[in-house]
Amino acid sequence: MIDSFKYLPRLIARFYQSQEVERYPSIPWAPFRQPVRQARFAIITSAGFYIKNHKPPFDI
Fold this sequence. Notes:
The chain is mostly helical. It has a domain at 33-60. The protein has one helix and no strands.
């Protein structure tokens, strides 16, 4: 088992563990209406994007 709260102070960990997780009945989705070859895709991330041996690692 992974302890996600391992490095949090006990009071904060106890607070988050007492919160209820909101469950959704289903995932909202729309049918794909065009061939994949004609579609455009985007990657949205909050992390640095790194291609091995192509660019230096991203680090702040």
